[in-house]
Amino acid sequence: MSTLRLLISDLAARPDSSLLRLLSLRPELMDPPAADFAALAARASSRAGLSRALDRLNQPQLQVLTALVVTAGPESGATAEQLADAVGGATPGDVEALLAELHGLALVLPTPRGTDDAGRRLFLPVTSLREVLGAHPAGLGRSYAELADSLPGCRDRLAGIAAALQLPGTTAGPAAALHRHLCSYTDPARLLAGAPDGTAELLAKFGAGPLGRVGHALRDPGGPDSPGDPGEGGGAVNWLLGHGLLVPVDDDHVELPREVGLLLRHGKVVARFAPEPPGTPVAQVRTALRDNAALGAVAAVLRTMGRLLDSVEGAPLATLRAGGVGVRAVRALARDLEIEMAQSYFYLELAAMAKLITLDPDTSLWKATASGWRPRDRAEQWLWLASAWLDAARLPSLVGTGSPAVNVLAGEAHRADAPALRATSLQVLATLHRGTAANAPTAPTEQQAPAQPGMVPAPTPEQVLEHYAWHHPRPARRIARALAGFLAEAEILGLTGASALTELGLAVIERDWDGALDLLAAALPDPVEHVLLQGDLTAVAPGYLSPALSAELSLLAEPEGRGTAGVYRFTPASIRRALAAGRTGAGIMEFLAAHSATSVPQPLAYLIADADSRHGRFTLGAASAVVSTEDPALMAELLAGDRAARLQLTAVSPTVAVSALAPADLAREMLDAGHSPSLSGDLAAAEPDRPAGRAWRAAPAVPHQALAPYEAARLLAAEYGTDAGRTDDAPDAGDPAAQTPAAETPGDGAAAAQRREAGNGVGHPRGAAEAQLAVLRSRPAWTPGRGEAAPALVREQLQRAIRDRADVWLTTVSGEGRPERLRVHPSTVAEGRVRAFDPGRDSERVFSLHRVMDVELIEGTGTKGRA
């Protein structure tokens, strides 16, 4: 039975609502768009696609799926009742509801037979799921059959054990005989009857995993040289090896077979079913305390980021040969910003995430590029930073760790899975917030602490990790080290306050950008448009200044101090800086008079007048390009009329003029004016690839407006015709999983909502799913031998032939492009190659998998007598 072909048929037969939900919950299936249902099925059952899907499952979903992989045969399948028996504490109703969810995610399929002999529905895991879950699902070892096939000499060893135990049916194979022998026991005590002392205790050590270390594991258990000192456990080891309850992997390690592990667990693949998230009570804090702390963090991050950009503008940061910025430069920056070194790491990483500082490849310097960020109001500035952090593929918490330590802005802090881990962590935090917030339902479940008026949950990192392990058990180990950093960074940004998620943070997590801007704009005080000028050459800001006023004051004076009421000090150097930037003395006085609540003090007026009187003794001009000609009349023609203004030309002699435009821009303007300039030798040498005699024309510069990360996401959502961040987690009316009767749905209420909310990860814009669905419905579901699914179908057929030890007709394409049909006996499929025995050549051959066009199982061969 081909589960891939079964999945193709299953997907093609689904209603549109079910397909849209699948595409929204597994967006990687349509990136790039799938050509047909076969390609969609191949991606859904590929190892990469399954790995990402399993990372989104919560604990009960993963428990049932693992039990299915262990319990179901390769082609027979398993029923919900069988899985309920394999999961301790689960009922058939619980399992049926979870199987419906897993089927909706294209991880589980009903078998073609539909039901077993008792009329119960049978289910199969999709192709490659066993490989993705690993060789030891649920901490169980490999079966006798798998061990016999994979370990050299294991089959002969098992045959000797089966013969010594006088097991019936050894002609079918020693692995099958031992399997039936173990399955005949229902109680581990009966199996261990007559075993040496300490045998049960030794087996109990395999509860954490099926592998163990044993010296001389390949010894003959009954031989004269085998260690048998009871004090060393040798007698118990010999007994277990002699009865096949431990199988040697090599001379130093043994493995507990799956049949033995299941017997020790009394047939339970999963010892304890976990349908609900942990019920550990979460501490609560006052809403006012949370909001005050969060708003203080918002103000601090904006103020510190502004000072960081000012510092980098004045002194760009050099990079080291090993990558990143050196500790000395960062320490100096931290002193300038008056923050701790650890915080300076985060602020530099945040500035790079938000593209406020960028690396100049020509000079290897990090320079400030925040021209689009500074003019915005504070709410937009903050959301720019928060949205950039949300989707950044970097882990700032790694900076300063490791040996050698990771430098700030170094490549070692890059992590491709950082956005997914950050998003799932924040989703779990949002789930805890919704479960116990003051606006939660009035009837909390047993796992929810009753909400107190004016209080919100403030979970510790340990509690968040505990809930994360339920919502996303597979990546829980990866998130363990990064979670504390995520939560600390969220606190610095103001997404949380006093460890409690804010409504602003919830809006950012849900990617409700407009809602976040409205919330922050309402919470922040209105910017002030005036300062208080004082006689000591300082200006005091009585609150948050508008971006324009703050930028101008930063040019005219030096910022001092911290806090809302900023202080700016006027110095001769700062006034000279403003005059050099194009300001005039009269203009500065007019600006200060317009924005000061007091009159301009006399010392400040004298300072401005003195600096203005010294300014302009020398005159500088920009000259990026030089134009020369041998004909003075031709130069006069070029300088005539408004043409010289457009070309920004200034004559320095009758035949030479200079321009402030770059040579490329000047050449383009002269070409548009009907002239044909030639490049001088040094400029022509800069273009060695330009064919000789080819007319030179520079590409026009394309002006663009800087977009904030959240604005880019909004434009992308507008292209799809939907809201950014829409997850479509709610079941559709036509989804079979949504039509489960309420009486048959386990954990109805909070647990089911938790699974829908946090168990399936971040969704994809619905418009992309609808476009993909339109493509799928417009084409045939599958074209045999062609398309993206063809290699996956070939691989699946080969794996089935290897499992059944059957011969196949293999159609391959030679290096010359000629097809060749061979009868071979495949042995392994790995790393894009298939090894097979060719009876025609009486030797083993290796074929590249991409050259295999078709595989046909030969009936009458293999362990089942037919393909």
Which helices and strands, and how do they pair?
Elements: H1 3-13, H2 16-25, H3 37-44, H4 47-55, H5 59-71, E1 78-79, H6 80-86, H7 92-104, E2 108-115, E3 121-125, H8 129-133, H9 144-150, H10 154-164, H11 174-183, H12 188-191, H13 199-204, E4 211-213, H14 234-242, E5 247-248, E6 253-255, H15 258-264, E7 284-286, H16 287-314, E8 317-318, H17 327-337, H18 341-353, E9 357-360, E10 365-368, H19 378-390, H20 418-436, E11 455-457, H21 461-471, H22 476-493, E12 496-497, E13 500-501, H23 503-509, H24 513-523, E14 532-534, E15 538-540, H25 547-556, E16 558-560, E17 567-569, H26 572-580, H27 585-595, H28 602-614, E18 625-628, H29 632-639, H30 643-647, E19 649-653, E20 656-659, H31 663-672, H32 681-685, H33 709-720, H34 750-758, H35 766-777, H36 790-804, E21 808-813, E22 819-830, E23 833-838, E24 843-848, E25 852-857
Antiparallel strand pairs: 1-3, 2-3, 4-6, 5-6, 7-11, 8-10, 9-10, 12-13, 14-15, 15-17, 16-17, 18-20, 19-20, 21-22, 21-25, 22-23, 23-24
What does this structure look like?
By secondary structure, the protein is an alpha+beta fold. It is 44% helix and 12% strand.
How would you concisely characterize the structure shown here?
By secondary structure, the protein is an alpha+beta fold. A 5-stranded antiparallel β-sheet has the order 24-23-22-21-25, with helices on one face. A 4-stranded antiparallel β-sheet has the order 14-15-17-16, with helices on one face.
